[in-house]
């Protein structure tokens, strides 16, 4: 069972979603306006919830179960003790190594060390929300005081090992390990601060010894939201870094929405924090593509598809989710049409559609055709005003009505496609080469600390680190290579209209995508668990190069070259996944 499935099983035990409520998953680039849309639908603009900032804010995925008949109730699942300890350890390790580099240059200050203690390098775990500035400064002082002792150990090791400057980082690693009790004591203080803050916010809840969740309820919206802010806000004085998943329910619906409006709104993490990270859709989004009834991609009108939007659409198309898909454009009022001319709404929409046409053409050239009608394009403006304008209210209501209508319509019949599986290997021949070439290049270019951080997350069975996404790459390469094969079966088991055939193909792609994602995680994270652990345990001179080599060997073996005997086993596994997907669709 994947972590996604574990979380939802636990949530359904604690706070089940009522039946017959459609689920909308929102995704978009960081800063595109996704959370602003959520805030508008919830009608919580004046309460300033959820947090909206021009940087990565939503890290803990939050589900809003919206109905005027439900009481205000919230359930939060916490990260495990092992996850939190490992994240704190990584922050300390990097802060110490950076401090030593500055110490050697005589450029060390408590302030710079405190900054390094604020968050993990991928900005997904922020200590600065939980710890006060004074606490961070005190911890930074202890690291600064540790530097002379560390320097003496490094100099001794350099002399004994006859190392050079290129290996200094590894020597520092060894020296830190020799004095690990110093950082262990600092780590304990950080964990104590975290536990104290959680206890303060959550009515005495003991983070590492009580249950893995916390719940609260209220009869009043204001008090309910004020409590939720303490657990979810991307600001100081919040414990959001230790929350892994949240589900909030109740009459969290803006007054302009219909009285009978009911919806599960899923506010996920952004597509990517930068263009490198967003160049390929994260595997975590694919979980929600299958889970949700509708998918809404939020794009900023002034610069649509500048970062991860194109990769998100490609993921939607190749995995068969186009029938669930809508495009939501924000900040239409900021679009300029012509120099010095007053632009009306129609002109601005036409300008946005030109940008969309460019993306459609680029996707078509890549073999992923975006066939989406105007009825699934939505345009929102003046999103930061205290109230939505008339046009935006109309568009938002049109979106929610469409989601409800698609959810309530009868499920389409399925007609079974038939494939010539002997041809499968020829379609998979390129995927191995593309996957291996990408990772050879990436591992060669990455700094050893980045590779180590990536290795650590593989040991944790996380999908990725920054732009290093082996699960997503595996999944993407296979689905891209098999796209034509799945789309063009050799025959059909019974006669059907072209539209029903296309819907059936989409269903197969969706189910195959889901099963392939599970398979990719098993192959990469579970089957090679010992390999990841071995690579992580390496230390001493030359360990960075050996670690890269071991990771390269793991990933080369994950998707073997089609000329190797192991490729036959991989082809058979993928054949079984596709056959299984068809059986699920038939059922």
Count of the separate structural domains: 3
What radius of gyration results from the CA coordinates?
A: 26 Å
Q: Which structural category fits the helices and strands?
A: alpha/beta
Largest sheet: 9 strands, mixed
Fold-level CATH name of the largest domain? Rossmann fold
Strand content: 5-15%
The main sheet orders its strands as 4-3-5-2-6-1-7-8-9
**How many individual β-strands?**
11
Task: Give the CATH class of the largest domain.
Answer: Alpha Beta
CATH superfamily of the largest domain: P-loop containing nucleotide triphosphate hydrolases
Distance between the termini: 21 Å
H/I helix tally: 20
Query: What's the rounded overall pLDDT mean?
Result: 90
Low-pLDDT parts are none
Task: Please identify, by name, the CATH architecture of the largest domain.
Answer: 3-Layer(aba) Sandwich
User: Shape, please?
Assistant: globular
Helical proportion, percent range: 40-55%
What are the key terms here?
587 residues; alpha/beta; Rossmann fold; 3 domains; nine-stranded mixed β-sheet; two-stranded antiparallel ribbon; 20 helices; 11 strands; 54% helix; 10% strand
Summarize the structure.
With 587 residues, the protein is α/β, with parallel strands linked by helices. It has 20 helices and 11 strands.
């Amino acid at each position: 069972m994947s972590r996604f499935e574990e979380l939802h099983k636990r949530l359904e035990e604690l706070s089940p979603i009522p039946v017959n409520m459609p689920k909308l998953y929102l995704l978009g680039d960081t800063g595109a306006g996704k959370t602003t849309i959520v805030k508008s639908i919830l009608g919580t603009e004046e309460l300033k919830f959820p947090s909206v900032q021009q940087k990565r804010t939503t890290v803990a995925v939050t589900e809003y179960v919206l109905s005027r008949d439900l009481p205000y109730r919230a359930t939060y699942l916490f990260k495990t003790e092992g996850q939190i300890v490992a994240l704190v350890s990584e922050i300390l390790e990097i802060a110490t190594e950076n401090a030593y580099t500055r110490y050697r240059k005589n450029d060390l200050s408590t302030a710079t060390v405190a900054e390094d203690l604020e968050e993990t390098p991928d900005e997904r775990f922020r200590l600065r929300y939980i710890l006060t500035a004074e606490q961070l400064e005190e911890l930074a002082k202890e690291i600064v005081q540790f530097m002379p002792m560390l320097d003496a150990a490094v100099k001794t090791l350099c002399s004994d090992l006859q190392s050079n400057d290129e290996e200094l980082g590894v020597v520092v690693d060894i020296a830190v390990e020799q004095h690990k009790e110093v950082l262990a004591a600092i780590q304990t203080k950080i964990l104590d601060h975290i536990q104290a803050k959680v206890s303060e916010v959550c009515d005495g809840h003991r983070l590492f010894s009580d249950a893995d969740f916390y719940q609260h309820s209220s009869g009043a919206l204001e008090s309910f939201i004020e409590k939720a802010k303490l657990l979810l806000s991307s600001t100081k004085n919040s414990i959001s870094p230790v929350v892994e998943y949240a589900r909030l329910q109740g009459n969290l619906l803006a007054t302009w929405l219909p009285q009978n409006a009911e919806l599960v709104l899923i506010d996920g993490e952004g597509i990517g924090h930068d263009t490198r990270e967003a160049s390929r859709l994260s595997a975590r989004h694919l979980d929600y593509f299958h889970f949700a009834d509708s998918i809404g991609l939020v794009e900023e009108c002034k610069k649509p598809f500048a970062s991860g939007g194109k990769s998100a659409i490609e993921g939607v198309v190749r995995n068969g989710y186009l029938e669930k898909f809508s495009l939501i454009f924000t900040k239409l009022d900021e679009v300029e049409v012509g120099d010095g001319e007053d632009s009306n709404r129609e002109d601005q929409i036409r300008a946005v559609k030109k940008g969309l046409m460019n993306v459609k053409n680029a996707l078509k050239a890549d073999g992923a055709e975006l066939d989406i009608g105007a009825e699934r394009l939505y345009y929102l403006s003046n999103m930061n005003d205290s109230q939505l304008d008339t046009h935006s209210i109309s568009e938002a209501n049109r979106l929610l009505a469409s989601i409800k209508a698609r959810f309530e319509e009868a499920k389409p019949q399925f007609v079974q496609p038939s494939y010539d599986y002997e041809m499968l290997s020829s379609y998979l021949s390129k995927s191995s080469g593309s996957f291996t070439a990408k990772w050879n290049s990436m591992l060669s270019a990455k700094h050893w600390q980045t590779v180590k951080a990536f290795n650590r997350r593989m040991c944790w069975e996380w999908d990725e680190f920054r732009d290093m996404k082996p699960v997503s790459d595996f999944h993407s390469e296979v689905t891209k290579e098999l796209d034509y094969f799945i789309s063009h079966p050799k025959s059909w088991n019974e006669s059907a209209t072209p539209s029903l055939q296309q819907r059936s193909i989409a269903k197969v792609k969706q189910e195959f995508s889901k099963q392939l994602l599970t398979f990719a995680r098993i192959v990469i994270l579970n089957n090679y668990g010992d390999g990841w652990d071995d690579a992580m345990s390496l230390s001493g001179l030359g360990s960075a190069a050996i670690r890269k080599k071991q990771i390269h060997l793991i990933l080369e073996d994950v998707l073997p070259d089609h000329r190797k005997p192991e490729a036959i086993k991989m082809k058979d596994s993928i054949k079984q996944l596709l056959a299984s997907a068809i059986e699920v669709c038939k059922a």
